[in-house]
Amino acid sequence: MSTFIVRPSNTDKDPFRIKLTAVSMLSLKLKSGDTCELRSTDSAEYGKKKLAIAWEASGAGMKDSIVQTSKLLQEVYGFKLGDKIVIARSSQLLQDSDRVSLEHVGSTLDEEGTKFWETYAKSAIPGVDECLVESQRLRFRLGLEVTEFVVKDVAAHDAMIARVSKNTKFRISTSNEPTAALEIDFSPSHLGGLQEAVRQVRDIVTRICRPVVKSHFKLYRPIQGVLLYGAKGTGKSAFISALAQSGWPTVVDWKPGTQLRLSNEPQLIILSPRYILRNAGGGSNMVNELDKLFDQIKDSPILVVSEVRHPNDVDGALRSEGKFAAEIELPIPSALQRKEILVALRGDDIVPPTGLLQEMAERTHGYVGADLYALVRRTLELAADRSPSNAPPTVNGKKSLPKGDRTTLRDTSGEPLAPLEVKSIDLEEALREIRPSALQEIFLETPNVHWSDIGGQHEIKRQLHNAVERPLKFADRMRKLGLQPKKGVLLYGPPGCSKTLLVRALATEAGLNFLAVKGAELISMYVGESERATREVFRKARAASPSIIFFDEIDAIASRGRSGSDLNVLTTLLNEMDGFEELRNVLVVAATNKPQNIDPALMRPGRFDNVVYIGPPDLEARREIFLKRLEKIDEEQRLELYEDIEEFARATEGFSGAEIVAICQTAGEYAFDADRDVIISEDIRKAIENTPKSITREMLFEFESWNNARMR
User: Fold this and answer.
1) Residue 404: pLDDT over 50
2) Which of 147, 338, 350, 630 could make an SS bond with 361 (beta carbons 3.0 to 4.6 A apart)?
């Protein structure tokens, strides 16, 4: 008797077979076909006899602590994925049932119908199911109609389960249970990172199948139309597929002319996007068809689902109460959601290892589910190619893969292939090949940069910290003083002076979602797309508040003298910052190297209220930058260089922070070229001499003049 973790089976055939590894079968003294007893480790359930058929799992890679079970077995025995159960060899053999009692769910069958279904069950069930268990639901589909029965008795004395054969007789009675009470179990374990969307849809399904409110409020009509939207590869099709496989008696792939069979049974209707898009084929006729569809199903337990990239792509007539009343976004995944997706993709396999999965999650900003699948696949392929023992055999000089399951591949000598060793170098190469398909979409997550990563700039850090902390932590105090939180902060100054790093660190330290947009990326050749992208930025920021929107190179979209579509982008930006919809718990931060080019409209009160100059690092900041860079080298040589830090800091007056970092990098290259493993002070002095300053006196004078003019 041993404890095992419940995991899903990869097939629904023979649902009362449980699959164990050869090692587990041996330890339990079982062979394929033996009867075993399952018990929950939960004391409330312990002792209830639940029999199953033990079967050896094919292939390798499955852990000895795992038992694979079908969804049906989990349902009837009350197990959940991840539960720990006890398995023991049973002395009780499975009996062949001579009689099975079925109860029809729904309206009463007449005598002719009862005889028909008894005959149908006798001919159909033995060829499909090896065993039946009490409380199991059976659904028979004839054409578009589904008829449902519940197994009430298998005549197996003290056991819930029995084998069926061609000699088993079936007897049918009728229940008054309405089929709309049927539970639709939408709990997909393989859809990582989509828990919120799953929860919303599950709630909608529950209200359709169990309309409790309807019994108290006659005008109540539950939501019956769900529109899933999101970028390419976020899992919309997989989501709908999982929903369709969650126990609906009837699933209809709707097209114009489809005749629905309305009943008290829950039904799922799937609409292709081509029928709901603006200017879809058929035009107003198609909208009329869909109007009729939604009107037809309003008193039935039916859910309609479809998918698009963006709700605005859908004909406006369909985005209303009584039609697609629920619009649910499948978002670009954050780092945490990417980890969930990667864990779901791996399943019970041992590769990629957990450490590498974490690295994947952290380095795949902007990757969606489809991208992550492609990345894992390519990483494993590269690992296999790199390992000589895993290289495929050759036939006439060409690669040839042996047939069979991937987990049982053997080389030409019959020996099993060596375990796959996946390393970071495989991920590095895969990342270069597999790029995020939604690269142009908008991404939200918290960056991993801290104040301590940035040398100096203490006063600027304090100003930025106050701009975020005060409205979030001291909202009541600000309200008493009549203070309005700052909506926008403009950072200006020469390039390479840590403007972007400061904003990323601000988001990290404050625990805010961070949305970064380069101004040039919002400029589109298509009329209206730039304005739409700008609105989308603010919509996502509001949804993910508290958050920071960071516009880098804002002068690209907000410079003086713009006209046409470029002016429309600026107008949209202004409207979003101080329009009708309040910008609550969203801080807009912008950076520019050319403040003199920015349209004055952005500098008015209520927009960019806070203007902060980020100049070249002072002596203290330069000293800190050198210290931080030298932290990465060997401690002994670092202590020697510390003696000259003051000299280096004074010698780099007027250099930007980025240039000081480059000086340290160049010094390391000088040491490498000299065939040394240590950096000496002379390397840094030489690097300082050979690094030109990009910040000129004229540039600094322009910044000062602009600020003086602004303050007049």
Assistant:
1) no
2) 338
Q: Check whether residue 460 and residue 582 sit in a common domain.
A: yes
299 and 224 within one domain: yes
Residue type present at position 551: F
CB of 306 closer than 8 Å to CB of 227: yes
Structure tokens at 487: 């909506």
The answer to whether residues 295 and 318 belong to one domain is yes
Q: Yes or no: say if 573 and 608 are a contact pair by the CB < 8 Å rule.
A: no
The tens digit of pLDDT for each residue in 45-96 reads 444 468 888 999 887 778 889 999 988 888 777 788 888 899 998 887 777 8
Alpha-carbon gap, residue 441 to 111, rounded angstroms:
61
pLDDT bin (cut points 50, 70, 90) of residue 20 is very high
Mean pLDDT of the region 368-390: 83
Read off the tokens for 62.
């499955």
Phi, psi at residue 160, to the nearest 5°?
-85, -15
- pTM (two decimals): 0.48
Question: The tokens of 572 are what?
Answer: 């949209």
Structural domain for 201, as ranges: 195-329
267 lies in the same domain as 205: yes
Cis preceding linkage at 352, omega within 30: yes
Burial of 205 (0-12, 13-18, 19+ CB in 10 A): buried
The closest alpha carbon to 521, from 602, 443, 596, 433, belongs to 443
Tell me the pairing of strands 35-40 and 50-56: antiparallel
Q: 3-class secondary structure for 477-529? A: HHHHCCCCCCCEEEEECCCCCCHHHHHHHHHHHHCCEEEEEEHHHHCCCCCCH
Q: Residue range 484-503: average pLDDT?
A: 86
Cα 280 to Cα 287: distance, rounded to the nearest angstrom? 9
Which amino acid, residue 202? Answer: R
Amino acid (1-letter code) at residue 109: L
Residues 6 or more apart whose CB falls under 8 angstroms from that of 272 comprise: 253, 254, 255, 306
HEC per residue, 74-102: HHHHCCCCCCEEEEEECCCCCCECCEEEE
Distances (CA, A) of 108 to 121, 171, 175, 178, 299: 17, 14, 7, 11, 22
The one-letter amino acid code at 10 reads N
Q: Which tokens hold the place of 217?
A: 């409020």
Sheet containing 267-271: order of strands: 250-254, 267-271, 302-308, 225-229, 326-329
Domain end among 578, 607, 636: 607
List phi, psi (to 5°) of 258: -65, 130
Which amino acid is it at 182?
Answer: L
Give the three-state DSSP class for 665.
helix
How many angstroms separate the CA atoms of 27 and 2, rounded? 9
Tell me how far the alpha carbon of residue 97 is from its chain's centroid. Answer: 47
Could you tell me the strand order of the sheet in which 145-153 lies? Answer: 137-142, 145-153, 99-105, 169-175
Range ranked top by mean pLDDT from 105-114, 301-310, 458-467, 566-575: 301-310
Query: Which helix (DSSP H) or strand (DSSP E) does residue 700 occupy?
Result: helix 697-711
Reply yes or no on whether the pLDDT at 335 is more than 80.
no
Q: Are 553 and 594 a contacting pair, CB within 8 Å?
A: no
